[in-house]
Predict the structure of Ig-like domain-containing protein.
Amino acid sequence: KLSALNRNDDVANNWYMTVPDMVTGKLGKDVLLPCNFTPPAQKEQESLTVIWRTKFHYTGPVIFSCLSKTDMSETGQNCSKSHGRYSLLGNPRSNNISLRIKDVTFMDEKTYFCRIQLSKSGSFETLTGTRLNIHVAPELLSIYIQTRASGEQLVTCDVKGSPPPTVMWIMPENISAPSVSVQSTCCSASSSIAYKPNTNYTCQIHGENGLQHQTIYFQAATEPKGQVSWPLFFTFVTLSGVFCIVSVILAVLYIKGKEQAHSLFKK
């Protein structure tokens, strides 16, 4: 995706260079930075040096350079080789020095400047450069129940995109819309709402190919019918044990009391 082209001209020396103001690339994909030039009339073939730099023209750090010599048998024919993630897709001999960047990341969001140097006719470099923007397509990632440290439970929907898409919550008509909290970064966001038991929750976004949505059903926890809860069972067992112990003690006391009464009667 290219913006309008800008053209840097040096009329006195018959130099022309055309580059886009801005290029948009997708995160993790390859991107092409176009650069075309028209050099002054050359009386003979000259060696060409291609340079790409970032941040500043003339003084910015060089990320790619190559030398194309007139004699193909000479060493130094490296304009067809990659330098890390950078490679030249254009042909300098055809006045095209377009640069390819592989697997772009947000760290690649910079301004790029192309430069061509002829061994005898001078050099030229774009003054304004090309700004690279990275695009992340809007995508609905997941919906789930989130439990905070305080014990509060929320229904949360995670999305990504640049900028992150707006999440729309779809609720049954008889459920009032709860308050929504949103946490967002440069390319991701989480939207959360307080839950109500036994309710369907649906979050929805507008994606590149239409609407995307996911649904989750939150069911209140219930104890199975016909089963005794563990706390009640534990209490019952404890009381039963105490009752048995008391019964044994009373029986022992009764027997001892009866024996003592019998002894007194004999006397």
The mean pLDDT is 78. The domain at 139-218 is CATH 2.60.40.10 (Immunoglobulin-like). DSSP finds one helix and 19 strands in the chain. Residues 230-266 form the longest helix (37 residues).
